Amino acid sequence: MDIVIAVAILATFFLLIGLGEPLAAKLRLPFTVLLAGFGIAVGIGAVFLLTTQITDALNPVAEAILGLPIRSGVFLYLFLPTLLFQVTLGVNLRRMLDDWVPVMVLAVVAVIVATLAVGGALYATGVLPLTACLLIGAIVSTTDPSAVVGIFRNLAAPRRLARIIEGESLLNDAAAIALFGLFMGFVMRGVPDPQIGAALAKFPVLLGGGALVGWLAGQAGLWLMARLGRFLLAQISVSVALPYLSYVLAEQVLGASGVIAVVAAGLAVNLSAPGRLSPAAWTALREVWDLLAHWAGAFIFLLAALLIPRLLDGVRWSDLGLVAVVAGAAIAARALMLWGVLPALAALRLSPAVQPSYRVAILWGGLRGAVTLALALAVTESLRVPPDVRRMTGILATGFTLFTLMVQGPSLRPLIRWLGLEKLSPLDAALARQVVAVALQGVREEVSRRAEAYGLAREVVRPEAKEFAARLDRALAAAEEGEDIHARDRITLGLIALAGAERDRVLYLFRERAISARMAERALANSDRLIEGARSGGRLGYNRAARRSLGQGGAYGLAALLHTRARLSRPLARAAADRFESLLTQQLILTALPEFIESRIRRIHGRRVAELLRELLERRSEEIARALAGLRLQFPGYAEELERRFLRRTALRIEEREYDLLLGDGLIGPELHATLSGALDRRRGAAEERPPLDLALQKADLVAQFPLFADLPPASRRGLARAVVTRFVAPGEVLQRRDEAVTSVSFIASGAVEAERAGNKVRLGRGEMFGQLALLSRTPRRADVRALTHGVVLQLDEARFLRLLRRSSKLRRAVRDSAVKRGAPADLVATLGAPEADQDTG
C-alpha cells in the first residue's frame, strides 16, 4: 500500500470521527450507529469503485481501503484493551462496589443465559453442531457499553440503576470473551457435543486467573509510576503499557482471560492511584486515556463496519431466517434477565427496583457492535474451524449486529419518547427549578462582589442589578410553586440540595489541596450516597447514608476481625487511618453547610425546612464528633498528626499561590519560580505522606491509661500490654452470651456495653470490666453483653487474670466492689478479702 494513500485514509478517518459526534447529536442518533453507517458506506463505496466501469482513477484508493490489515487481533489486542482500561478508570469504583452483587450477577448470569438461549435456539434448527451454536451464542451475548451509557444519559435515570447496568455492560464483554475462548477451543478440536457443565466449570478459572494477573500487574504498574515522581509523561507512558502487558501475559503466557486481566488492572489503578499519584498526574492520566479511548472506540466501529460486506459474502435468503432466530433468542434472554433476575434482586434488596418503562428501554438498547464483529472475524480467519461454521458465524453475527445498529439504534430515541422517559417527574422538575434558583443566588452574590471590587459607578450597576433581581425573583417563585410538591417532598429537595452543597465543598477542598485525592473520592462517594438516599428514602434514606459514612462496618469491621482473630494488624492500621482521615474530612466539610442552609435553603423552602435540615446536620456533626472521640481514645495523638497535615497542606497551597502571583507580576523570573516550585513539590510530597499508625504502641498506651492498672510498675504494664488481646467492637455486636464457658475477662478501653440479665440491663463504660465474676465462681456466664457503641475491649485470659489479681490491689478492690454490687455469694466476696501487697506480674 502506498504510504501517501495510507496517510490520506487515516486522516480521512480522523475527519469522519471529528465530524461524526456533532452530526450524531444533530441527527439524535447514537454516535456508534453513525460511525457504523460511515464504515459500511465506505466499504460498499470501495467495492463499487473496483467493480464499476465509470472510472479507474480511484481504484488505488479503493484497493487500499479493502486491503487494510483488518484482523481480529487488531481489535482484540490493540483496541479492546484501550477501551476496557479507560472505562475501568472512569467508573466510580467505590460506588460500584456498593452494588457488586447485582453487577456480577447480571454480568455473568446474563452472558451465560444469552449464550445458552441463542445456542439452544440455533441448535434446534439443525444447521450446526452444538459447540458451534454455543460459540455463536457467546459471540452475540456482548452488549455495547457506550450505547447503554448513552441511554441513561438521555433518560437521566436513577444513578444507582445506571451504575448497575453500566457495570454489567462493562463486565459482560469480559465474561463473553472468556466463554468464546472456551467454545472456540471445542470447535477447533472437533468436539461436537461438549459437556456443558464441564465447560462452565472452567469458566471461573479463566475469570479468576485473569483477575489475579491483572490485579498484580496493576499494583506493579502503580509502584513504578509512583517511583517516577514528577516525570508526568513517563507515568502516562507506563499506564499506556499496563493494559497491553496484562492482556498478553494473561492470554498468551498463563492461558487465562486477557480481558478480565485488563479490567482488573484498571480497577487496581482506579482504586489505588488517587492515594499514590499526585492530583495533577491522576487528572492528566485520565484525560489522556479519555482521548485514547475515544479514538479507539471510533476506529473499532469504523474498521469493523468495513468488514461487514466481507462477512456477508455468500449470504442466502434462508440465512435471514436464522438471523431472526438469533435475534429473537438474544432478546428473549435479555428480557428474562430484566423481568426475572432484576425483580428477584430487588426483592432481596440487592438492586433498586426497575420500572417497566426502564426495562423496555434497556431491552431495546442492548446494541451489539465491534466486539461481536471482532470475535466473528476471529472465527472466519481460523483455518482449524470447519468452513460451514466459519461462513455461518460471519453471517449470523454480522446480521444480528446490523439488526441492532440499523433497527434498534435509530428507533431507540422514539421509543424513549413514546415511553415518556424524557419527561421529568414532579420531584425532578422541582429539583431542577431549585438548582436554577440556588445557582442564580450564587451568581448574584459573586457579581455584587465583583462590581464592588471593580469600583463600578452606581448608575452602571443599578439597572443590571435590578434586571438580575427580577430574574432571580422569578426563579425563586418557580422553585416555590408546584401543587404536586408536598411538605415531605420539600424536605427531600432540601436534603438533596444540602448533599449537593457538600459535594461542591469536597471539590473546593480538593482544588485547594486541603484534602488528598483519595479522601476526595471517598467524600464524593459519601455525598453521592446522601443524594441517592434522600431521593429514594427521604429523611430516613439520608440518615442511613450519613450513618454509613461513619465507616463503622465494611472494611473497617473486617480489618478489626482479622486483628482480633488472626492477629493481623496491618489491615486494621490502614483501615483505622483511613477512617480517621475520612471523619476529619467530613468534619471539615460540614463546617460550611450551616451557612448554605441559611443563605439558600431558607429562602427557597422556608424556615421550617431550614430548621429541620439544621437539626439533621447538627445530629450528624455530633455523631462524627463522637466517632472521632472514640478513635482519639483508641489512638491518642494520631488525630492531632492528621490535623497538622491539613494545616501543612493549606500552607503549601497558599505559598504556591504567592509564587504564582510573584511570577505573574514579574517580580521573580521563571528560573527562580521553577526552583521554588520544585522545593514546594518536595515539601508537598512529604506532607502527603500519612503518619504511620502503630497498633502495638497504641495497645501499650491503652494499658498505661487504664485506671485499674495504674498501680502496676512500668515493667508489669509492658508485660500486660503484650498479654492482652485487643478487640475492636461495633455497635450491636454480641461480646458475651449467657451460659457460655468463661475463659477470659474483658476490660473496656473505650466505648460502652450493655449487660442484660433476667430482664435487667446494666450499662458499663470505659474503665470497667465484665466476665470476672463468672470466671472466679467457675460458673457459666449469666448475662448477655452487647456493644452499644464502637469501641475497644482488652481481653485477658484466665491464668494471666488470676496472676494479675493477686498482684494488683486496685484490681482486687474493683472486683470485690463489683461482686458486692451484683449480689455475689458471700464466699466469693470473702475470697477477695483485703488485697495483698502488690507484686510484679512478670
From TrEMBL:
SUPFAM superfamilies on file: cAMP-binding domain-like
Domain of life of the source: Bacteria
Keyword Plastid: no
Pfam families reported for this sequence: cNMP_binding, Na_H_Exchanger
GO cellular component: plasma membrane
GO terms, molecular function: potassium:proton antiporter activity; sodium:proton antiporter activity
Transmembrane segments: 6-24, 31-54, 74-93, 100-122, 128-149, 170-191, 203-224, 256-277, 289-308, 320-348, 360-379, 391-407
InterPro entries: Cation/H_exchanger_CPA1, Cation/H_exchanger_TM, cNMP-bd_dom, cNMP-bd_dom_sf, RmlC-like_jellyroll
Keyword entries, A-Z: Cell membrane, Ion transport, Membrane, Sodium, Sodium transport, Transmembrane, Transmembrane helix, Transport
CDD domains found in the cross-reference section: CAP_ED (cd00038)
Membrane topology: Multi-pass membrane protein
GO biological process, one term: sodium ion import across plasma membrane
Compartments, record wording: Cell membrane
Ranges for domain Cyclic nucleotide-binding: 708-822
Gene3D superfamilies: 6.10.140.1330, Jelly Rolls (2.60.120.10)
Principal place of residence: membrane
Protein name per the record: Sodium/proton antiporter (CPA1 family)
